[in-house]
Amino acid sequence: MGEKASRQVVVLACSGIGKTWGALARETALELVERVRPGVATTACLPLLVINDPDARCLVMEHPVITLDGCPKACARKSVEALGKKVDHPVESIQFYTAHRELKPEGVAQLNAAGLKLAQVAANELAAIVDRLAAGGQT
User: Fold this and answer.
1) Which CATH number does the domain housing residue 83 bear?
2) DSSP string covering 66-130
3) How many whole angstroms separate alpha carbon 40 and alpha carbon 1?
4) Of 3, 29, 56, 125, which is the most buried if we count CB atoms within 10 A?
5) Which of 127, 68, 72 is nearest to 93 (CA)?
6) CA-CA distance, 69 to 64, in Å (whole number)?
7) Residue 67 — φ and ψ, nearest 5°?
8) Residue 6 burial (CB < 10 Å; 0-12/13-18/19+)?
9) Residue environment code for 51-77, b if the CB has 16+ CB neighbours within 10 A, otherwise e
10) How many CB atoms lie within 10 A of CB 114?
11) What pLDDT, on the 0 to 100 scale, is given for residue 6?
12) CA 115 to each of CA 47, 104, 109, 112, 135: distance values in angstroms, whole numbers, following the listed order
C-alpha cells in the first residue's frame, strides 16, 4: 500500500435482501474490510444509519465513504446523501460483473463460487480507491 493511510474509509453496502447483486455488494464490502484493507476500510450497519444512530452517523460524516449498491435504487448512496453527506465513490455492484462476465454470481443468501470470486476481484479493484481516499485524495 505504500504510505500509511491517514484515515479510515467507510464502505457501506446495500441490504439487497433476496437479490444476487445485493449479496455481491455485501460480500465485496466484507472482502474489502476484512481481507484487502483491514484497519483502513471499515463498515457500518446501513439500517443503523437509516434510523440515525449517532455512532453510525458520526462514522459516515467524519470519513470518506464508498457505497456499494445492488440496484439502481441506490439505497446505500441515498441513505448517506440523506444525511447531507456527499458519497466519495458510489458503486453499483453489477459493474464488476459487466467487467468480468466469466464470473457470474448466483445466489442470494450465499453466493456461488463464481460470485465469491467476483467479490474478491471487486474488493481488489476498490483497494486503490480506498488508498486514495485514506490518504486524503479524491476518486
Assistant:
1) 3.40.50
2) EEEESSTT-HHHHHHHTTT---SEEEETHHHHHH-TTS----SSS--HHHHHHHHHHHHHHHHHH
3) 11
4) 29
5) 68
6) 16
7) -110, 140
8) exposed
9) eeeeebbebbeebbbbbbbbeeebbbb
10) 16
11) 63
12) 24, 6, 12, 5, 30
One DSSP character per residue, 32-70 reads IIIIISBTTEE---HHHHHTT-HHHHHHHHHS-EEEEES
Number of domains in the chain: 1
List the domain range (segments joined by +) for residue 25.
9-134
- The predicted model scores a pTM of 0.91
- Please, which residues bridge with residue 91 across strands? 68
CA dist 78 to 48, 74, 85, Å? 14, 6, 10
C-alpha cell at 39: 484497519
Residue where the block lists cell 440515525: 52
Is 2 part of a structural domain of the chain? Answer: no
**Which one of 13-22, 88-97, 102-111 scores highest in mean pLDDT?**
88-97
Fill in the amino acid letter for 118.
L
109 has a pLDDT exceeding 90: no
In a domain, 94, yes or no: yes
With respect to residue 4, please indicate whether it lies within any of the assigned structural domains.
no
Q: What is the predicted pLDDT for the residue at 137?
A: 84
